[in-house]
Write a structure and sequence with these properties.
This protein has 468 residues and is mainly beta. It is built from two helices and 27 strands.
Length: 468
């Protein structure tokens, strides 16, 4: 019966592909007026240029144990930022030759992708004291990789590194060289690492505590040419979950949690996998009210999406792009949309040629607001569009089931000025700096434990904070 079912399913898929007409416009435009929200925004801190080029900020995190915010530049530095934003100081330059891991930061997509502090970083006497992790593209391609693609040109490697500070509260990193936990051989220059994070909702003593989530791209090029995302024997195109302090992985450098979906299936699926079928999982976060994990996924050339990420979930790529069957780099089939009950389809999605955007489009985010720091954002999921700097929300209590109808636009209002989008604020700063006007924002989000939401970018070195 199973073989018959699979054959019938293949016939249905083939039939759908024959009858469908690929399109680059499967969705209606976002309604930029109905339900739009205006929030305040103000400058919070300045991150230094490198060689006259603005900081390429990717992530801002709060480390409550040492009462500091930290922000990275993709080229290697991590800066410590005081809670009031008045002090920005170098914590470590991971690209320094001292450490032996030269960062490959050419182009827009390569560099230090993400970093994460162990939840016990500031708790002296615990196994995680002083430990933090960087997920970084490196130049050296000679060392043997733990995970390899099915081909490509070995453009660079992506490495997970563990750093161990002697004194977690020290103003600058005072530990030794990092320990390498895992290494990927990258077949192409794009779609490399994504987010790195510990679940902030996990409590000490629970099985989830201290487990590190790792976003891994599909290896790059376009369309996942090696079909890695759907291959559960490959680590590419996945969300991985590991115990960085464990040692039961194949290389003995980290642990595989027994609760991972494939942890007890030897000789095939990778035990490190938490979820699969991703293309470029740049950002994820958890809902503090119910634990739901959300992911911002960068699409091919047609659909951008925000999805939930359940344990063992298949996010669909490269069979599906958003709610639609992936057809070519330039389009999707609308026949049979969301037509596979085994897949995890987006909660919201938008298309590339929406009038709100310019030439390039890429989903980013994501942050779930449950406090009342900004009342108009309470009980929403905040995300954005990376190049344009547009910010959006949808209802966290009643998430949509795909499409763009549930998306509400968020406009940013400085103390003196009219509501606008981030890119226009950046351009105004560029003018004051005497620099050329930015063509894109490269928006990223950060958050503090007190509810503050920060906006990062790669064009003017300014960290901004949302206000009521």
């Amino acid at each position: 019966m199973r073989r018959t079912f699979k054959f019938a399913a293949l016939l249905l898929i083939a039939g759908a592909g024959i009858n469908a007409q690929p399109t680059s416009r499967p969705l209606p435009p976002i309604d930029s007026v109905r339900g739009a929200i205006t929030v305040g925004v103000s400058d919070f801190a300045k991150v230094p240029d490198i060689g006259g080029i603005a900081a390429r900020m990717m992530l801002l995190v709060d480390e409550p144990g040492t009462r500091r915010l930290f922000v990275n530049d993709m080229r290697g530095p991590i800066y410590a930022v005081s809670y009031d934003g008045k002090s920005v100081a170098s914590y470590i330059d991971t690209n320094d030759s001292t450490w032996g891991h030269a960062v490959q930061s050419q182009g827009r997509e390569r560099g230090m992708q993400s970093f994460a502090f162990h939840p016990q970083f500031g708790q002296r006497g615990t196994p995680g004291y002083g430990k933090f992790y960087t997920w970084v593209d490196v130049r050296a391609t000679g060392p043997v990789a733990d995970f390899r693609p099915a081909g490509g040109s070995n453009t660079h490697h992506t490495v997970l590194l563990e750093w161990s500070a002697k004194n977690a509260a020290a103003p600058t990193y005072d530990g030794g060289p990092p320990r390498e936990l895992m290494r990927f051989e990258q077949p192409f220059a794009n779609h490399n690492g994504g987010m790195l994070a510990f679940n902030p909702l996990a409590r000490a003593g629970t099985p989830e505590f201290g487990l590190l989530y790792i976003g891994v791209g599909d290896g790059g090029s376009g369309g996942d040419p090696q079909n890695l995302s759907q291959n559960v024997a490959s680590a590419f195109g996945k969300i991985l979950r590991i115990d960085p302090l464990g040692n039961n992985a194949v290389n003995g450098k980290y642990g595989i949690p027994p609760t991972n979906p494939f942890a007890s299936q030897p000789g095939g699926p990778l035990g490190e996998i938490y979820a699969y079928g991703t293309r470029n999982p740049q950002r994820f976060a958890w809902d503090p009210a119910n634990g739901t994990m959300y992911m911002a996924e960068i699409g091919q050339n047609t659909v951008e999406e925000i999805s939930t990420v359940p344990l063992g979930g298949n996010l669909g790529w490269n069979v599906w792009e958003g709610s639609f069957r992936f057809a070519t780099r330039g389009g999707v089939d609308t026949v049979g949309a969301r037509g596979d009950a085994t897949m995890v389809f987006p909660v919201v999605e938008y298309q590339h040629d929406d009038p709100l955007f310019q030439r390039q489009v890429a989903a980013t985010g994501v942050h779930v607001v449950r406090d009342n720091a900004i009342p108009s954002l309470r009980n929403t999921v905040v995300f954005g569009d990376n190049p344009s700097g547009e910010v959006f929300v949808f209802d966290a209590d009643n998430p949509p089931r795909g499409g763009s109808a549930g998306i509400r636009r968020v406009l940013l209002k400085p103390a003196s000025g009219t509501p606008t989008k981030l890119l226009e604020l950046i351009r105004a700063t560029n003018s004051a700096q005497g620099k050329a006007s930015a063509t894109r924002a490269d928006l990223r989000f950060g958050a503090a434990t007190d509810g503050r939401i920060f906006l990062l970018n790669k064009a003017d070195g300014t960290i901004r904070v949302l206000t009521p």
